[in-house]
């Protein structure tokens, strides 16, 4: 019966997975000394560097071998779920931060044994993304956040506060109506991911997990939506909906992550831009993203798998690994020692990471983020629904979904 | 295989020969049947089973009976966008099916009249069908760009104001339907085959009787193409109801402005693969299956009886 169930599961997963092309048959390596590790497919040059890290690890830990499996990022969660449904999941791998709670609740990932890592070595925000119900379920491997990007031809001094942000945006748009002040985040998954940073800056939170209360309909959350709605007046969507508006000089500011620092330097060398900390209201804050390393409960050799995660997150290797995969170290000492710290723009990101907040650790957060909050953002920012009404509706739905009162 | 193939030559009795032929026939269709069984029927059965369970793909499925169906259809708190996705899809079907039938027919009709290079045009109009969906999406994103897009530029030339086609809820589905009309190569090919199947004697006879081009089109071509049109309407409707890839690429997996691009299958996909509600997603896929079955049955009911003539 169990076998039947598993094969049915695998088949259903295979048919429903529209984007799942031939899923190269991994999983044969049921060797207790081999750790199959899944991560996002990097460029070929980066992959070589990761392989060099593997070689170094294998030299230092004779008897353990690491089998790297590269999965395109866009398909990662789908493939992981399909592989696990078919009982062919990896031993260890990346796990997107908001997936932690779902996998932990389902007992699909193993609690990190005490002593594997020292909490104090890591950025608080990144570490928090591994906590589910107060227990540590993963090792932070890499992280990212958003900062303010501004076009130095259009903005001389970057705004430090929300009020200044609105004023600068209006100035830019008054000066030239064809240029938008800010590429205002939208009511989609990405905008909803950034939103908690703004709420935190206004002094609010999204959920109170201890007391089982939805808090993203409180005043700070409304103020965050008010800000975006106000910004939209000097930042018309007809302009910002164009392809890459900031890069092409059509928007004077945007909120984005370090990937754009690298991307703009390479692809838009003529654009004069700089980055600054996110404008704040009550306190400095931003949002955090990134990936954790986890060991799945079916792992043949948990010890070996955790050793590998330890290696990737330690002072000597974390910066290199995060850099290879285009992200930021989670290990403070590694970040400070890395060459990244010499780059002034990257330094702003590192500084911002200190105030980056983890997303709530509830299993249904992705649905709440993508469907309820995103929709409230859309209604209140692009539409004319008062923020309080939009958020109340979303909060009510979220509470029902979570089974909270 | 070899023995059965030789049976007719070895002069066995009629019955044995028929049996051998049947076996041969089964062997020939076996690959297709196995494919249907393994990759379609069994997974469909599995999906039916999972539609009665709560399942996130990572922990064991739990039997919940009809709860998924009930929640999907009636619980607007958990699935606030379900009916929205039905509306979006219905509008898409209503706009895209006639649009692609029309462009398919017009291109086929024109190609049928060209004297030279028919195969070139056939290929050219069929290309959008075989182009990778991701590439199609990227190209149309540029065409519809509110600032630099060719669509707005072209409208500007004739003095019309451009729009933010994919950024304005009311224009999203029409913009999608236009892409469908552009991708009507399959309709074109089948219409073309239909046109070739009309005996030229009808045209010759009508010309003798003094019928003009418009009358020939209206009284001969279109009526005789009715079976073709019917077939294309049925298949076009089925595929339009399942539109997914294009919207997924255009809106990078999000539902578009105010959910205006949230087609039924995109909604289903997000529920299953992003939100971890595979049970509910399976239920949605069965609801769609039933809907398609009913719609097709109605279409067959309405089908004119005089097809063979």
Automatic annotation (TrEMBL), chain A:
Q: Which domain of life is it from?
A: Bacteria
Q: Where is the signal peptide?
A: 1-21
Its name, as the record gives it, is: ABC transporter substrate-binding protein
What the record says about family reads: Belongs to the bacterial solute-binding protein 1 family.
Q: Which UniProt keywords apply?
A: Signal, Transport
- What PROSITE patterns does the entry give? PROKAR_LIPOPROTEIN (PS51257)
| InterPro entries with a match to the protein in the record | SBP
From TrEMBL, chain B:
Q: What is its main location?
A: membrane
CDD domains named among the record's database cross-references: TM_PBP2
Q: Ranges for the ABC transmembrane type-1 domain?
A: 82-299
**What Pfam families does the annotation carry?**
BPD_transp_1
Cross-referenced InterPro entries, in alphabetical order? ABC_transporter_permease (IPR051393), MetI-like (IPR000515), MetI-like_sf (IPR035906)
Membrane spanning stretches: 25-50, 90-111, 123-143, 172-195, 229-251, 278-298
**Membrane topology designation:** Multi-pass membrane protein
Q: Which family does the record assign? A: Belongs to the binding-protein-dependent transport system permease family.
The name this protein goes by in its record:
Carbohydrate ABC transporter permease
Tell me the organism.
Nocardioides astragali
Q: What is the lineage of its organism?
A: Bacteria, Bacillati, Actinomycetota, Actinomycetes, Propionibacteriales
């Amino acid at each position: 019966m169990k076998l039947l169930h598993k094969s049915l599961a695998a088949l259903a997963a295979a048919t429903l997975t529209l984007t799942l092309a031939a899923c190269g048959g991994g999983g044969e390596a049921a060797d207790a000394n081999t750790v199959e590790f899944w991560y996002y497919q990097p460029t070929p040059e980066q992959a070589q560097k990761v392989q060099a890290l593997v070689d170094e690890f294998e030299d230092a830990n004779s008897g353990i071998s690491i089998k790297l499996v590269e999965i395109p990022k866009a398909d990662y969660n789908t493939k992981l779920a399909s592989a696990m449904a078919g009982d062919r999941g990896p031993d260890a791998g990346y796990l997107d931060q908001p997936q932690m709670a779902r996998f932990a609740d389902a007992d699909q990932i193993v609690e990190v044994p005490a002593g594997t890592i020292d909490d104090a070595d890591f950025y608080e925000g990144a570490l928090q993304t591994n906590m589910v119900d107060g227990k540590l379920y993963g090792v932070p491997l890499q992280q990212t956040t958003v900062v303010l990007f501004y076009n130095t031809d259009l903005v001389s001094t970057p705004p430090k506060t929300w009020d200044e942000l609105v004023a600068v945006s209006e100035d830019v748009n008054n000066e030239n109506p064809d240029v938008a002040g800010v590429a205002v985040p939208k009511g989609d998954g990405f905008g909803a991911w950034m939103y908690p940073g703004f709420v935190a800056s206004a002094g609010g939170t999204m959920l109170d997990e201890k007391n089982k209360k939805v808090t993203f309909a409180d005043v700070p959350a409304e103020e965050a939506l008010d800000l975006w709605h106000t910004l939209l007046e000097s930042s018309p969507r007809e302009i910002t909906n164009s392809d890459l508006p900031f890069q092409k000089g059509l928007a004077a500011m945007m909120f984005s992550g370090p990937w754009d620092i690298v991307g703009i330097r390479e692809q838009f060398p003529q654009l004069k831009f700089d980055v600054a900390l996110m404008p704040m209201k009550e306190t400095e804050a931003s949002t955090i993203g990134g990936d954790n390393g986890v060991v799945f409960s079916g792992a043949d050799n948990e010890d070996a798998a955790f050793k590998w995660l330890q290696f990737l997150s330690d002072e000597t290797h974390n910066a290199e690994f995060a850099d290879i995969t285009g992200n930021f170290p989670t290990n403070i000492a590694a970040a400070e020692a890395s060459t990244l710290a010499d780059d002034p723009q990257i330094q702003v990101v590192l500084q911002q990471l200190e105030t980056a907040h983890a997303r709530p650790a509830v299993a249904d957060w992705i649905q709440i983020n993508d469907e309820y909050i995103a929709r409230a953002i859309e209604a209140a920012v692009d539409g004319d629904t008062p923020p309080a009404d939009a958020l109340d509706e979303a909060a009510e739905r979220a509470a029902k979904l979570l089974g909270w009162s | 295989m070899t023995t059965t193939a030789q049976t007719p030559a070895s002069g066995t009795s009629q019955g044995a020969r028929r049996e051998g032929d049947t076996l041969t026939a089964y062997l020939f269709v076996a690959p297709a049947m196995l494919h249907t069984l393994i990759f379609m029927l069994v997974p469909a059965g599995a999906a039916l089973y999972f539609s009665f369970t709560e399942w996130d793909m990572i922990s064991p499925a739990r039997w919940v009976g009809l709860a998924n169906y009930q929640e999907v259809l009636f619980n607007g708190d958990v699935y606030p966008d379900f009916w929205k996705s039905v509306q979006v899809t219905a509008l898409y079907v209503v706009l895209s099916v006639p649009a692609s039938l029309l462009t398919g027919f017009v291109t086929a009709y024109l190609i049928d009249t060209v004297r030279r290079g028919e195969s070139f045009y056939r290929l050219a109009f069929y290309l959008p069908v075989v182009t990778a969906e991701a590439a199609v999406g990227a190209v149309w994103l540029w065409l519809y760009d509110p600032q630099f897009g060719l669509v707005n530029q072209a409208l500007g030339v004739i003095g019309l104001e451009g729009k933010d086609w994919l950024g304005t809820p009311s224009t999203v589905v029409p913009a999608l339907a236009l892409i469908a009309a552009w991708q009507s190569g399959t309709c074109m090919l089948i219409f073309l085959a239909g046109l070739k199947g009309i005996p030229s004697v009808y045209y010759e006879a009508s010309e003798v009787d003094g019928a003009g081009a418009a009358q020939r089109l209206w009284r001969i071509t279109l009526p005789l193409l009715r079976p073709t049109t019917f077939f294309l309407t049925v298949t076009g409707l089925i595929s339009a109801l399942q539109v997914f890839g294009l919207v997924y690429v255009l809106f990078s997996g999000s539902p578009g402005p105010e959910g205006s691009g949230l087609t039924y299958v995109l909604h289903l996909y997000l529920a299953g693969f992003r939100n971890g509600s595979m049970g509910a997603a399976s239920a949605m896929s069965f609801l769609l299956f039933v809907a398609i079955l009913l719609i097709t049955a109605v279409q067959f009911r309405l089908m004119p009886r005089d097809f063979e003539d």
